[in-house]
## 1
Amino acid sequence: MDDTLLRLRGLTKAYPGVVANDDVSFDIGASEIHALLGENGAGKSTLVKMIFGLVQPDKGEMVLEGKPYAPSKPSDARQSGVAMVFQHFSLFNALDVAENVALGMETPPPLRDLARQIREVSEAYGLPLDPRRTVGTLSAGERQRVEIIRCLLQEPRLLIMDEPTSVLTPQEVEILFQTLLKLKSEGTSILYISHKLEEIRTLCDEATILRLGKNVGTCTPRDVTARQMAEMMVGSSFAAPEVRGGEAGDVLLECRALELPAPGAFGTPLRELSLEVRSGEVLGIGGVAGNGQDELLSALSGERLAPAGAIWFKGEDISRKGPVARRALGVLSAPEERLGHAAAPNMSLTENAVLTAARRKELVSGGFIDWAAAKGFAEEVIARFDVRTPGPGVAARALSGGNLQKYVVGREILQDPSVLVVNQPTWGVDAAAAAAIRQALLDLAGQGAAIICISQDLDELMEVSDRFAALNEGRLSRAVPVAELDIEKIGLMMGGAHDMEVAHAAG
Amino acid sequence: MDPVLLVVSIMVSATPILLAAIGEMVVEKSGVLNLGVEGMMITGAVMGFAIAVGTGSPLLGFAGAAVAGAALSLCFGVLTQYLLSNQVATGLGLTLVGLGLSALIGSNYEGQRAPSLGRLDIPLLGDIPVLGRMLFSHDVMVYASLALVAAVWAFLRLTRAGLILRAVGEDHESAHALGYKVVRIRLAAIAFGGACAGLGGAYVSLVRVPQWTEGMTAGAGWIALAIVVFASWRALGVLIGAYLFGGVTVIQLNLQAAGTTLPVEILSMSPYLITILVLVIISARGVHGAPGSLGRSFHASS
């Protein structure tokens, strides 16, 4: 396209231990909806933070409408006509809509005029919103409208939207798309960040795909299939899964049409979710973040009780049993969020060991904690999983993310579970340690445990799983043996084709 | 009992708490919990007294007290905002430091008398019979404190700077994402709160008593803190709370002097009990509105 609005050249940003963006270059045309696509951790957020002035690039340059553009703070960006709608809204619950809008503007008019302008803009773009409402009382979709209107009032030339649909209902998504198309027709460019392929195909003119911080290609989403985009996003490089020998044993854990309402405003309900996992088997569950991964884990761990008859362990209904009872039976879990969920941040590693392993490792006798045994167990985890820490007396929060991850996963593995549910077991862990964790999971399966591995890392799932299923909006696809999978099937399972047969027929 | 004298003494007794509480309200609105109000008040009291005695000018004394309170509060600010120390512990420490420091500075001033702050008779209004003497014939600090309450209300409610301050207290992460300087705004609020507490302390040592005795603020700072909470962080609520407390204090003193049959202990307790009771009733109806980030440390991580 000739009339380029924003030109990015060689943007590089490194954080300690990770290069978030490596020599990223692309152009955003005027009146163009440009998609920025990539898996979690591909560097999308860092890139837009640089464009919005929240982070400064180490190297590289940006050119906005022919002029050098190097915002050192968000207000520079706003003055240059760049506005951003955040993924996690930057709103103030106790303030009303007009006050929230005023806070995001450089030179806001008096509040009374502003309220009138908000009404006008919200009507013009079909985003009804009452400026006097307190933001805390609004739904997620309405909150996003506040953010969008805040941006629109400044008449931006480039609007950045960071995963705008992740918290919206389908109806709200529809309204949002109409708004964005109207903006585009008025000459505003939009940088649209997402990893939802179908969304991008409907909405966007161009797409730039990031993988591990690098720009791996640009395409026109309408002209390519979801499969081609998924290939670029995931990289077709992942190793062909080898068929592992060994027969799967008896069914250990089974979900029968599990239904659970969403836990909160931003949660995902679980819908008719059925799965079974057998002794000696690893079931890999993929899917884009926020499609029910956390909810599935808490349903299986017992943090949230399921309706009777939904979850079975060795033929026993455990739906109404809490986490402690399930742990006693041998159903263990390691959640994704390390600090505050898997581990208590301010407690030592020994204390954290007692928290989940007290019963199975007999660390408590007669109501008293056997500290020697607890310390021994913590040291065993540290040694087996190469946790880099001065010792078991260190507080969990003092460990780096990767090291703590090794500790919380290792803590569960060493308790000899019959069923282990892990969510993102190697998130933020370096390659060597990740391989060790995966090997430990495989060894555990080899000893007859059933493992459910929820992850957003497809390479990882292909490596460890025997069967693969994908979560999409709280529904779980049929589990398919990994040996039968190819990149196209995975893309369709993840990208929202709820029923693979129908999708095949259509595509 | 002379009603004119009663109202006059209520206003005098309420002013120090009003000053300290309105300052602390601004601090808490910015998301910082400074429990050192008592320490800043007593420091203001001794510094104001020393400067007023030294220069002979009570107004200079008040100015010095404000500076001293602000300086002490900035120690708290640096510790909690830059070094991320715990706000509760640091605030309590500040109170202890203030009490000790003031005793040290004030030891030479025990028994001296402060130069008095003249009454400011407002022309015309001051000539109204009864009401004039009751309401319009006070020293300048009484009017200043009332003006300050109005100014704080208008600042928080009507100005953009006030909106930003509230936003920082509500959600410092969001405010940071929008590009506001969370730490700088909080330091300014902390300094303002310190200056107000200093003024309140100086009012005790220069007007209300007026002399220096060790520990003379006698818990006024703690009452100021409680009033901010029970006033649901609203300027009008702070005004009501401070005057209520001042009023009950004066009345119970008069009752004690009149020799009622009620035990003295119950009378002495009554200002605290009644103030808290009334403010609880007020705040039970409305929204509580504690700032969302109150007491939480902020560290810009990205």
## 2
Amino acid sequence: MAKLKEVKLKIGAVKKTKQITKAMNMVAASRLRGAQSKMEAFRPYSTKFAEVLGSLAQRAGENANPLIVPRDNVKNIHLVLCTSDRGLCGGFNANLVSKAESFFNEKNKEGISVSFTNFGKKGRDWCFNKKLQIANSHVGVVGAKFGFNVAMSSGKQLIESFISGGYDEVYVLYSEFVSMARQVPILKKIIPIPPIEVDKSKLEDKTYMPEHICEPSAGELLSELLPRSIYVQLHRALLETSTSEHAARMAAMDNATKACNDMINSLTLAYNKARQSAITAELMDIVGGAEALVRG
Amino acid sequence: MPTNIKVEIVTPEKTVVSEEAQIVMSPGILGEFGVLCSHTPFLTTLKTGTVRYIDANGKERIVFISSGFAEALPDRVTILAESAERRRDIDVKRAKAALERAEKRLSGKEESDIDFTRAKAALDRALHRIKIASSVT
């Protein structure tokens, strides 16, 4: 009988866990919708931006702005690491962190020091445990509601440090939302801004004339737009990471709910078997007793 | 020969305007400019202010924008702004509160202060919003 009760308690516990994972799954699904629509709303801005910047940078020529000039002697690298604040989302943070680690080790071997800006608790905790150099950490951004100003203020700091010579290169590591089932960690250099690729088909299209009249001069425009393009990239990285986090959590919680179902099934089977054998044993007792009476 | 151009006003949050217009006037950094169909390609930064355009039905539309830039091409104008609101969407109450806050901050601040520039920009935005919201066509 003791075993029967144990199994029953266990079933109850797994059912409660299932309720929680199911609820988390649904919460993640609704947040995912929000994050995804925000990401899609941002897309026209960023594509248009890239288009304008491409045609402008081509005309302004190389070395027009310190933000696009690569440095020969790279000593200090800064990495903006985007992770989530909370766990229970499968391998999401582990993937990002392992990529960050391999990047860090590789650069460290070359004698380059790497410092970090963290978005998200998980990345910060990792840096903290490894005793890495943390310049800045922001909690409560990824996975929550945030505006363009977040990317702007932190982008401003990065640019200032780059110009003053504190950093020679700035990278961003974020999770790209490929599909519901796939989120890929992506490492990208954001400062100095890599040469902007111009869409060739646009140039052949005669109605699209890349030669603009600029007001003020092209150089001045560029110095206005380049910092903004860094904000745009940071903002995009944050949006992608948020969306990925929710998608990863949804998948993880879906798996957990399925695992709970499997467990409940096998436990119920065990429970039924135990109950059946208890009944059989009792019956045998009664039958044995009755037979003894008849004989006696 | 088409006489209408496409006007698009886009912010990081959403696309605010996307429609046909007869003329678009925007507050460029060196002064206000109007764009008609077949305008030569033109690129400029924008001040905080008002974008006005006449839509395909001849009705004047007014949109608030805060700093950004505009690209004019023969068949369209694209305005990328930090924030933008159509006149009917402006929250006057919020703008008035922002105005008060900015004024408070501006009193007793040095001009070199970074907060001063920030407050001044906020004041500018609030004033423009209120002006647009209270104007009547």
## 3
Amino acid sequence: MVMSASARVGKSYVFMSIIISTAIILLILTFLLINSWQAISEIGWGVFSSEWHPAAGKFGILAMIYGSVAVMIIALTIAIPLGIMTAVFTAEVLPAKYRFYVKSMLELLAGIPSIIYGLIGIVFLSVWIEDFFALQSGRTILAGGILLAIMVLPTVITLSDDALHNVPAKYREAARGLGLYPYEVLKSAVLPHAVNDIAGALLLALGRVLGETMAVMLVIGSIDRIPVPFLNTLLPGQTITSKLGREIAETAFGSLEFSALIFMGLLLLVFVLAFTILAQTFFYQPEQRLYE
Amino acid sequence: MSRQLRNRLFLLVSSGAVLLCTAILLFLFSVITWNGINALSPSFLLTASRSFGAEGGIFYQILGSLLMVLTAALICLPLALGAAIYKSEYLKNARLQKASAILIYGLNGIPSVIFGIFGLILFVNILNTGISWFVGAIILAIMMLPTVVLATFQAMNSIPEIYRESARALGLNHWQVVTGVLLPQGFAGAITGLLLGLARAIGETAPIMFIATAFSGIEIPHALNEPVTALPTHILALAQQATDPRALQNAWGASFVLIGLVTLFSITGLISRTKFKTVSQR
């Protein structure tokens, strides 16, 4: 069949569009890889040491990795139990007519820009931590972790609520018909069906926590040091994102320091992408919904 | 432990969690609203900022933010429509379909600071554009792209096959079916996606702070390669001088306005999602 001119132009336009749209992510990965190559080749495994001191030629990123992992663990330890228990209430106990309001509220809360969480963290949270633990400064790893927990809570609640809500009512009815208590209905009939989706939700939350920048940058204190003793989160620290946010614009393009910073970004990107893709491909049907 | 006791304990813990979450929520809303409203006044909205933001208003920050995100939407729309049409109507290979989905979902999951770094390397350093509002708009357009592509794709892909077959039976070729029958539906989806994307983009700080914004003394840019001032980066600058009560008050005011804009975009997006239901959902 002969294609008309407009059809031919149209088809090449839509083809170009999909090529550009799917190539952007590859382009970003390539640029980060090229720009971190200098650090990879010149510093090698030395990047995984604990001292960051550009003037002395030391580019160890371990302190930043420690910070990112530490805030992630604190945030998820708070947000996962709190979020799932709340979702159990909204999905299983709360009458259905209130569900719309709760969901809208959560959506609104999830839409608050991270810089505003940062402002709240500076003005309230870090001051409370300072007073409560009698510290010199409340800008600590703990403050970053708690703030991230608050930020990621709406996502955890709303996705877990969806997961529980999607379990067909017949399972609950059958379990209730056997005379089980609500707790037992949940544990033995509802949760086994929802557990896959909840796991996906948690992976997405993990990716969000790792990649969050502005709020963490404002409250974490920005000192590139692994705390002594190791688990003392009441000291200032640094995450990969806060380091990048504070320093990348002031670092000379093409220098070894720039390259080491970009390597950190690449590392972050690879982990976040792994979590996101894992969550989207193994736990959700791609057509369902876009989780941000 | 008896079954009854265990059940009570469960209800107790669950309500405790709900109470704690509600308390956090109420705290956030009241802090933002109370401090925001106290800082708000007509002159705050309509005058330029002075003395590094501690005095004056946020007029040019509002304009700058809107300029950047609306330009981003204009850049994003044609690309997203094209990509969604191809994905929905031309891409029939299941493996490629899956690969394109992974790449687009992956783009959606990229941390915002990485977009800023990408813009810094590609535009500011390699293409030597300098700090430019237009570069900011391009980067925000890339951030919005997955949301818009997927919203459009879902709207078009859910149109029943019978519509395509009927149109073909009338003698339309594939492209005419796409533009005449499927695109109107897809466009409604794209608008919804764009509004939700705008709600996210306008609050982003990390992607634009290295590449698009300057802090003060900037009004309206006259060329594509000039910097702009924006609400999120203004709040960032004010938050770093939070010991000055005047700066802090202006930070709350700017935050309130920013949340107002986010809410405006997302509520319009939600309305358009329910209003323009696709044929299959009617």
## 4
Amino acid sequence: MKKFDYFQPETLKDAYSLIEKSNGSYIYIAGGTDLIANIKNRLIQPDALISLRRIKEISGITQNKDLTLGSMTLLRDIEKDSHIGQNYPALAQAVKILATPQIRNVATIGGNLCNSAPSADCAPPLLVLEASVTLEGPGGQRSIAIEDFFMGPGQTCMNMSEILTRIRITPPGENTGMAFLKVGRVSTDIAIVNAAACLTMEKNVCRKCRLSVGAVAPVPLRLRSVEKMIEGQEISPELLNRAGKMVEEEVKPITDVRSTSGYRRIMSGVLIKRAIEEAIRRMEQNK
Amino acid sequence: MTEYSYIGTEAPRPDAPDKAAGKALYIHDLVRPGMLYGKIKFSEYAHARIKHIDTSKAEKLPGVHAVITGYNTPEIRIGFIRDNFALKKDKVRQFRDEVAAVAAIDPDIAEEAVDLIKVEYEELPSVFTPEDALKEGASLVHEVDTRGRPKSDNVVPVPWKFVAGDVQKAKQEAAFIAEDHFQTPLIQQSCLGTAGSIAEFDLNNNLLIHAKTQIPFLAQNDFNRALAAMGLKGKNTRVIVPAIGGSFGTGLDTHSYEYISILLAYKTGRPVKIVFNREEEFTALSPRQPPKSHIIQGCDKDGKLTFREIRMILDNGAYTSWGATTPSVMMLPISSLYRVPNVFYETKIVYTNNTYCQAMRGYGNPQGTWPIESNMDQLAEAAGIDPYEFRMINSNIPNETSPMGLKISTCGLKECLKTVAEKLDWEEKHGKGRSKARGVGMASLLHVGGGARVYRSDGTGIIMKLDDFGNVSVITGGVEMGQGFDASLTLASAEALGVTPDKINIISGDTATCPWDVGTHASRGAFTACNAAIMAADKAREKIFHLASEHFMRRVQSKLKKQKKKDPDFEIPDLDYERMFDPSEFDMKENYIFLKGEPDNPLLRVTLEEILRAAHYKEQGTMIATEAFYDPPNENIDPRTSRGNISATYSFGTQGAEVEVDLETGKVKVLQFVAAHDVGKVINKQTIMGQIYGGVVMGIGYALSEEYKTEKGKNLNPNFLDYKILSAPDVDFPIHAECIETNDEKGPFGAKGVGEPGLVPTAPAIANAVYDAIGIRIRDLPITPEKVLAALKEKKD
């Protein structure tokens, strides 16, 4: 492993000034569960790491009108938060089965997003919840929809000096149910496919549908055409089958050491169907 | 039935607290004064000629003490047929070939130095499947054999063949026949503790090596041979085995990295440590061989097996380890699992440019049992007989010699089968769950349970040394590698000697101080060491009782006098003092020596430590240290006839699974698992349960998820991110482990070996359950959701 310097600034401003001095050879580090592995595997060789761990303002969970998650919030803290468990079960479930307890004790939600793996488990729930993320840098701050954040495997819309500081979620309205599902080879695994659904129902008719599937394209996908097809319809087995087929056509999975593109394609359809069913069941349970 | 004080109890493992608390010292924890860190430069090709190695830059790097290659060190030949070299010259035959190595003051510098070594190669055509390797004109992995004679093909000169009866005739006469092809993938042993060694020389050029090995004394022999090759003939090796985090067969051979640490230590005059990281553990250690089997079995109209024919082809990889002898163990189930009179078995082992293979838990038995037990279900179906009934009809029975010459003494197979059928509710469930995609399946095993005469000796030594305080050092040649060896030996020693288990200290893992042993393998650890412990304990008891005849009376008299002093009303009883001079009148239990028949009178018993001190602190005194060497009554397999009673007794078992298949995802979910094992006798209940649970979970991983994937000889998943073993959350179903006690007279207290059996029949039990659930027969492991889904689709079309 190449040696590197390590900084622990306590304010965003200090972090920016460090990175601006570095000419692109420094990078930010959150929990480090992916980043350190990448350094060890020599995929990246930074001269220095700037840890965001001591910057208090970007950590923690607050619920006012919206739910705000500091980017440095540990996955373990999200998992343990009863309010999130109650009101955002798709996110709670994604975090609960993400890697192992040891990893969740150091990994952060911001890190999971900034790593920008197509299989990031936090992405599908945030996509169906239509979360927004705040990016801050020396040049100021901007807020963008999570959907516009991912650009490709390991690539986001952020520039080198920007920091993802907050994730904001507006609570979904009444009669809404949501679910997150994942297929792995064993219990503790990177997703072969993961998926989330969030549906607002009026009796049997779906008023609003948000669907997302991960690990089957260069970025986690929102499935807009499938959503449109479902909205205004009664949820029936036929509709679900049609949705499943549509999903299979929308995804662009690859074959790798973990799975095949064919299997991933079929699974994305199956998971979306099941996620919709689960979301509706949860909504009915909450009534 | 004999009443035991400790045998069969749930005594906690003596090594557990230190291991759980992180205090046990593994090779990774050890630091020797002045120690350097070694690192190996591996090949970048599967098959290539080495044109030039430039080490100049590495040598100049500050902190580097030595850079070695095959060109500047003595040639050290290694391996089962000595076709391998510690460092490679001229050409590389697999990706993991060691072309150079460095020793440096820290691991980072060592790594940097390895990167600075530049090797020029000329790539050669490669062979990656045994079939391709056998083709006319295939590229030769080895151009010459170990004697330097030119080779004309890629066949490893270790053929295995077994013939009994007349299979051709039986084929013609059989009422029902089932035939199929099966295969298993490369499997990595997945030890939590990776491999490593620290070598160092004293100023007399004797070698001290801390090594992760299961065969310290055979390793001593291997290393002494290396010393001779280095011009140090007559010098000796002392092997010390630190705590081991799982070995599973990886420690049955000595490895290049160990010899490289020796060469580096000799060159630098410093201790040199080489420890593999996880990626190296995957890519530079040897996985379990992947055989392809063609099986045909037949039975008569009543369902009695009449013949079994198996032809197997094994991918050896580029060099030959002791793993090439695993077909001798595959021969056991092939010739003798269930009663079958006519057997034909032949296997061909073939060199390829893949990573070379090695033994793993089960020593070939899991690969042998996979086709047999999958095909047993197929034959039962062809014959229209329930698979459980079919197995009962053909079950082995006690006191019978099999066609291979295995003298089956006790045999609890029928009871194991019955237990599994009952626990799974077989009658209610088998063949009835298809509408819910649920099914049950079972498979059995036969394995060596009384040692295994693989080498000329199957012996093990024990020394029992007693101290002033009644503590007993049980010094053994066996190795604790996580399996619970110390725990079973503790209870057996305590029971045999008559002391409490807390008095027992197991000392192991040092060739200089421990008695000789052939190796901890073949499920022989507890069987052989506990038998040796009983022998050593008998000798110790004889000595103790002899000392008691000298000292007992005086100690008793002084006790009585003391009592009288305390209590004037106490009347000194009229005792038979004659008995106290007769060693044969004594017995010992729970650290107390007493006259036979009077264990409970506190005035008439003396502690072991009192007697020992009395023996030590007198003129012309004595001490107690006894030794025993146990070599089981078993035979080598005759290489000409492939016959021989390889083990003193045999372990049997049946495992059963209930599964549910998700028809949309293809995922096989285990709902419950039953493992019924003929263990002879439970020595330590906690340890044996650990062995069975651990075996089952490892077996289910082998069945459902584990696969060492390669592309053109290169491992694609050298980490636990992509090599999927099961972890605790995957075991969300009950495992009913049942120990059937058949009390074998050869076994210590009746016990048989159980280290390996837990994973032997697991995969076919699950595959048979999958077939029962959805009517699909998976023939190549692992049973992944992709394969199940593809087969379901094919079935539908």
